[in-house]
Specification:
This protein is α/β, with parallel strands linked by helices. It has a single domain, classed as Rossmann fold (3-Layer(aba) Sandwich). The protein has 9 helices and 7 strands, in the order E-H-E-H-E-H-E-H-H-E-H-E-H-H-H-E. It has a 7-stranded parallel sheet with strand order 3-2-1-4-5-6-7, with helices on both faces. Helix 1 links the parallel strand 1 and strand 2. The longest helix is centred in the middle third of the chain and has 28 residues. The protein binds 1,4-dihydronicotinamide adenine dinucleotide. Belongs to the short-chain dehydrogenases/reductases (SDR) family. It holds the Pfam family adh_short_C2. Keywords: Oxidoreductase.
Length: 252
């Protein structure tokens, strides 16, 4: 896949799935903007990749998202592909404490998870779409999760947010498809990243979890990155408003 001359923006680009996607886009010739709350890590990755820039952003803040796209505009003059991927789970705000049942979920945890995972995607889209419209279109991929399809106990906020992202994705596809903007989602299964690795690798948990995955392994961030880059490529030119599930067969 050739992304020479294409300008790409990846949120949550400093770690895990985002960082793997940044690397793949850069290897395919794209100019990549790495946007992340962890500005230092974004800078470090940008230094490794020719033509890449870093951008500190909190996607919960709509003004930050506008400033992020302004940075891309100034640096690259256009935006061809956006991967809205920054995300957290309930476990993040609770810092390792067990997630309580839904009726006991602290309101600030609900607001933080919805704020990053759903509002954040909306704030990014409303900043990105005008630039894509101005420069003739583009391709957008939003990160959902298996929890856009099924749920588990004690994941109310994350499940609600990820279902929301899928709905938002479909709306954008319908609303902007006639102006050459495609919008799709990717649903990763269980991916070994800093978001999940302390949970999924616990010895009492790991084997039973692996047994639910027909391919018998957790995904590597690169497994998801390949799906994202393809969705953004010309090869996926007729794919719009759908979700590509990269879960090793879990949902089958
Ligand atoms: P990760 O923790 O390795 O990377 C997430 C990145 O998002 C980090 O660099 C973090 O600094 C950044 N981030 C978090 N909050 C932010 C904010 N408010 N503003 C800007 N940046 C922020 O996690 P991973 O696993 O790579 O997750 C990426 C996406 O994939 C998330 O949306 C997550 O929900 C989703 N996902 C992950 C799965 C997994 O098993 N790891 C499974 C399904 C979905």
């Amino acid at each position: 896949m050739d992304f020479q001359g294409k300008a790409v923006l990846v949120t949550g680009g400093a770690s895990g799935i985002g960082a793997a996607t940044v690397r793949l886009f850069a290897a395919a010739g794209a100019q990549v903007a790495i946007a992340d709350r962890n500005a230092q890590a974004a800078q470090a990755l940008a230094k490794e990749l020719p033509g890449a820039i870093a951008c500190g952003v909190d996607v919960m803040n709509p003004d930050d998202c506008l400033a992020m796209v302004d940075t891309v505009h100034k640096a690259f003059g256009r935006l061809d592909c956006a991967f809205n991927n920054a995300g957290i789970t309930e476990i993040g705000p609770l810092k390792g404490a067990p997630v309580p049942e839904t009726h006991d979920l602290p309101l600030d945890v609900w607001r933080q998870v919805l704020g990053v995972d759903l509002d954040g995607v909306f704030y990014c889209l409303r900043a990105q779409l005008p630039l894509m419209l101005e420069t003739g279109g583009g391709a957008i991929v939003n990160t959902t999760s298996l929890q856009a399809h099924v749920s588990y106990p004690r994941t109310a906020a994350y499940t609600a947010a990820k279902h929301g992202v899928f709905g938002l994705t479909k709306t954008i596809a319908k609303e902007y498809g006639n102006r050459n903007i495609r919008c799709n989602a990717v649903s990763p299964g269980v991916v070994d990243t800093p978001l999940t690795n302390t949970v999924i690798n616990q010895p009492e948990y790991k084997d039973s979890l692996l047994n639910t995955i027909p391919l018998g392994r957790f995904a590597e961030p690169e497994d998801v990155a390949k799906a994202v880059v393809w969705l953004c490529s010309d090869g996926a030119g007729y794919i719009n408003g759908t979700v590509l599930v990269a879960d090793g067969g879990y949902l089958a």
